[in-house]
Amino acid sequence: GQIVYSIAEETERGASVGNIAKDLGIDAATLSARKFRMITGSSKQYFNINASTGALSVNEPIDREQLCELKSDCLLNYELVLENPLELYRMEFKVLDINDNSPSFPLSEYHINMPEFLSPGARFTLPSAQDLDEGANSVQNYTLSPDEHFYLEMQIRRDGSKYPELVLKKALDREQQATHRLVLTAKDGGNPPKSGDVPVIVTVLDTNDNAPEFEHSVYRASILENSPSGTLVVQVHATDLDEGPNGEVRYSFSNTTSADLQRMFSVHPHTGEVTVNGVLAVQRPLLEMLIEARDNGAFGMSSTAKLLVEITDVNNHGPEITITSLSSPIPEDAAPGTVIALLSILDKDPGENGKVTCQISENLPFQLKPSLQNYYSLVTSELLDRELISEYNITITATDLGSPPLTTQKTVWVQISDVNDNAPVFSADAFDVFVEENNPLGAFLYQVSASDPDIGENGRVSYVLRNSTVAGSALTSFLSMNLANGSIYAKRAFDFEQLRSFHFQVEAKDNGSPALSAAITVNVYISDQNDNAPAILYPISQNGSVAVEVVPRLADEDYLVTKVVADDEDNAQNAWLSYHLAHSSDSTLFQLSAHTGELRTTRSLRSTDFLKHKVVVVVRDHGEPPLSSTVTVGILLADTLPQALPDFDDSGEQPPLLNATNIYLIVSLACVSFIFAAFIFFLAIIRL
Q: What is the pTM of this model?
């Protein structure tokens, strides 16, 4: 918003101007917290704001004439900037003129030479007084001290300005009075009015009775403000009806023309050409000078003409970019439309040359929005992502509308601060861990790793085992984890025969607020070691005795004596079993299948074979190193199972002597043979 105050110049320090908080509807108690500050282009701080009450007071008295020179309106522009949230208010102070300056004349006294033969009605231009005040407080009228030969009359130029002229009322007589001393008084319209006096000394001459006359009472010219020295502004011309030296005219600036203008311009004394003499360092668009034409008579006569020079602006000032307020760094989750900076862009040139367009690059997530007059707000136009871009160098380009246009650039560095918007991410969907059984306690198993693109505490990742059970026991009784680096260690030795695999979850959590986390499954596979020897399931020895197998006395070749059955709790090649004969009482009688464990006869049994035999079978796995078990099998050659098993401690026996059983067998065999022969004989008889 904008608010306008009026204040008289020279108001004493501390005088109240208003209450800015009440006038703008701001809570005065928040001014300090919102870091209020007043910004002005003036070199002095003329006003002050009480941070507690919001009262606006005079900080330094204002001299309107020093501040604004001859401007009709004297304005001071201030901006009040508040933060949290960012607000900008424009304050305009109109400085009112008071009658604090008296009219004054450029010289301490003026001399006029008048020929004595002039007729009544002759006119002489008197100097004009200057009053730095404006309006009614400036010069309003002139008075002349009473004199029987002169009176004062005001004249109006074509531009409306007034100036005093001294008019001859009564013919002069130099012999009676050669000098007349008059007092010219200029009064302003103030209350009370002020005045200034200057002595006017009239010297009566008796020659040269014609003053030069200009062709125009007012000359007008226009030049560019960057015109080089020597540029012709205008040529004035005046004529004098006198002859000889009295009619020769010389041109110069009138004494009422300010010294600054006389330094900027020069007038040729003979040709009347007014040219640029230096740099046109003025801020006023219209300059006013008085050119005097004086003849070369013994008592030179003169007249003046006004020269009005209009200074045409050229585009010689580039835009000025000022960063009034900047918020950096900004959080990456700032909503679109968040104000980043407040910029003031000014161009000292007037008119189109002072109009400015402002822009930034299109490929940035920012944009410029016009604020108050000559102010722009730099705001976000879309969401930011620090993990993609952590800082921006924003180049602001301001270009005026002059021809050719002038451009100014200023770079604003904006940093993006991190917020916890990224959860940790593991490098895989799941991790597989392979560990051999019988591992030592505290053995390192695996190290999980998760990354977090955030920075600082938001990107610091810690690891923890999620609660679960393995084989009915808590996971923490099996494993431990380093919270900082994700290393997993074994707290017990694993046994493949009891637990072959299990899985659990590891959670990675950052240290942001609120914290973000991610979990991953870790599969643990326990690999087998050859730590179990084969177990003999059959035949079984009891109490250290030898297992006995009974084989018919006359068994045929490849007769299955027995099958050794064994098992190994290990896995894979550690459980692949092979069978071998470590010892046999008759190596030619028995053979053992290496893969099936079947013990068979290698030939038919004879009556001459021992009745009992003993073999030792070795069952061996394929581990590294291999483990084995042995079993001893006693083999008894008999057609029936005896009531008492013999002792197999001896390796074998001699062929048996004839006994009742043997005789019985021989007799039986003989009878069968006789019956068979008789039956053959009988068949032969019948056939015949």
A: 0.53
